[in-house]
Amino acid sequence: MVSSLDGFIAKKDDTVDWLKSVDTYENGITLTAEEIDLYVKNIDCYVMGSKTYETALRLGWPYGNKPVFVISHRDLASEKDSVSFYNGDLSKLINQILKPKYDNIWVVGGAVLTKQIINLKLADILIRSIMPIIIGEGTLFFDFIGEEYKLHLQDVKAYNDGMVELTYTFKHD
After folding, report:
1. Cα–Cα distance between 112 and 76 in angstroms, integer?
2. What CA–CA distances, in Å, run from 125 to 32, 103, 113, 171?
3. How far apart are the C-alpha atoms of 61 and 81, rounded to whole Å?
4. Taking the CB of residue 80, how many other CB atoms lie within 10 A of it?
5. Beta-carbon-side half-sphere exposure of residue 92 (alpha carbons within 13 Å)
């Protein structure tokens, strides 16, 4: 998930135009197109909420033809052959439907879905990318998650556009 420094994933009006940084950090990593392609190739399928799905469609659909499972209580129409909609038990979807077929399941967001995935202890890794901006208000990445979770810092990367990526593993009991 990508957030502002103050923890928001979208502005108050649900826009995400701030995701493209105009900052520069001289000591940061510059990703090549090949590195990005390799990273994306390792993802087997995506799980996202309906707002994230609608935002992705609006922004140009970066998920290619990989299977995408959209969690929604609304009756949405699919604009992509690779998209399926799901309204049911998340544990069943992840553990019984997706895990037997896919090794690397990437939960893209949004905030409500991410909170549910964490609270159901369905996540193994949390990658949080922080953009060099303070938005001030909007949709929070976490809004009162309700439990304490122990994490282990696995990796930290700083990119040339000022974005910082934190990778944590969950320490499930």
Report:
1. 18
2. 24, 13, 15, 10
3. 12
4. 15
5. 5
Tokens 């299977």 identify what position?
Answer: 67
Q: The domain containing residue 155 runs over which residues?
A: 2-170
64-99 pLDDT, tens digit per residue, is 999 999 999 999 988 799 999 999 999 999 999 999
CATH of the domain at 154: 3.40.430.10
| CA–CA gap between residue 42 and residue 132 (Å, rounded) | 27
Q: Which of 39, 26, 24, 10 is nearest to 155 (CA)?
A: 39
Give the other-Cβ count within 10 Å of 164's Cβ: 16
Rounded Cα gap, residues 38 and 122, in angstroms? 25
121 touches 170 (CB < 8 A): yes
Report the domain count for the chain: 1
pTM of the model: 0.91
Cα–chain-centroid distance for residue 101?
A: 20
